[in-house]
Specification:
This protein has 8 helices and no strands. By secondary structure, it is an all-alpha fold. α1 packs antiparallel against α2 and α1 runs parallel beside α6.
C-alpha cells in the first residue's frame, strides 16, 4: 500500500485514492465504520476541490477580462494621443501637448492597470474637458473615460474573488490533511479487524497510485539499464 504524501500527490490523486478505498470497503458489513470514515473524507475533498477550482477559474477569468479591458484602454489612449499630436502639428515639444501628456502615453499606460495609470487617465480627460483648444478631442476623451470606468469596475469585481479563492483553498487543504490521515491509517485499522498476517489482502483495498512526481523524475533521469531505487 502506497501512502498519500502532500508533497508528491495532487489533490486529484487524494480524491481518486479515497474514492477507490470507499468502494473496496463495501466488501463486508464489518468494514461499515471504516467505510463511513473514508466516505466522509472523500466527500470533503470532492466538494472542496470543486469549490477551490471554481474559485480559481472565476478569479483567473476576471483577470483575463481586466487584461482585455486594459488593452482596449491602451488602444483608446493611443488614438487620443495621435489626434492630439495632429492638433499641434506633430510637435511633441509643444507646451500644450506636454501639458496634456506630462508623461509619454506609452509609458503611462505600460503597467496593467494601477493607480498611476488611473491618475494619468483622469488628468488627460480633465485637461481635454477644461481646455478649449482640445475640443476636437472630446469624443476620444469620452471613449478613454468610458474604458477607464469599465476597467475600474472590473478590478473592483476581482477583489472578492481573491478572498473566495483563498478561503476555498484553505478549506481544501484542511480536507486533504484529514483525508490523508484517514487513508494512511486505514491499513492499521484493517489489520486490527483482519489480522496483521493478511497484508496482501489488506493491500488489495488500496488503489495503485501513480508514481510520485519526484520519484518519477528521478527514474526519468536514470541512464538506460541502470537499476532504479
Amino acid at each position: 500500500m502506497q501512502s498519500l504524501n502532500p508533497d508528491t500527490h495532487s489533490p486529484h490523486a487524494h480524491k481518486a485514492a479515497l474514492r477507490y478505498l470507499r468502494i473496496q470497503l463495501l466488501r463486508a458489513p464489518q468494514f461499515a465504520e471504516l467505510r463511513a470514515q473514508a466516505e466522509s473524507a472523500f466527500r470533503a475533498i470532492a466538494d472542496t476541490l470543486d469549490a477551490a477550482e471554481d474559485a480559481a477559474d472565476a478569479r483567473q477569468g476576471q483577470t483575463a477580462v481586466i487584461e482585455a479591458l486594459d488593452g482596449e484602454q491602451d488602444d483608446a489612449m493611443s488614438r487620443l494621443a495621435i489626434r492630439a499630436k495632429a492638433e499641434v502639428g506633430g510637435k511633441l515639444d509643444d507646451v500644450r501637448y506636454q501639458a496634456l501628456f506630462p508623461v509619454a502615453p506609452s509609458d503611462a499606460m505600460k503597467p496593467v492597470t494601477g493607480d498611476d495609470q488611473a491618475r494619468f487617465v483622469r488628468h488627460v480627460v480633465e485637461t481635454v474637458h477644461n481646455e478649449g483648444l482640445w475640443a476636437p478631442l472630446l469624443p476620444s476623451a469620452a471613449e478613454v473615460d468610458q474604458r477607464q470606468q469599465e476597467l475600474s469596475a472590473a478590478i473592483a469585481a476581482r477583489e472578492p474573488l481573491y478572498l473566495a479563492e483563498s478561503q476555498t483553498s484553505a478549506a481544501l487543504q484542511r480536507a486533504l490533511d484529514n483525508g490523508r490521515r484517514v487513508y494512511n491509517l486505514m491499513p492499521s485499522r484493517l489489520a486490527l479487524l483482519l489480522g496483521a498476517d493478511r497484508k496482501r489482502y489488506i493491500d488489495s483495498f488500496f488503489k495503485t497510485l501513480s508514481k510520485p512526481r519526484k520519484a518519477k523524475a528521478a527514474d526519468d533521469d536514470a541512464p538506460d539499464g541502470e537499476p532504479q531505487a
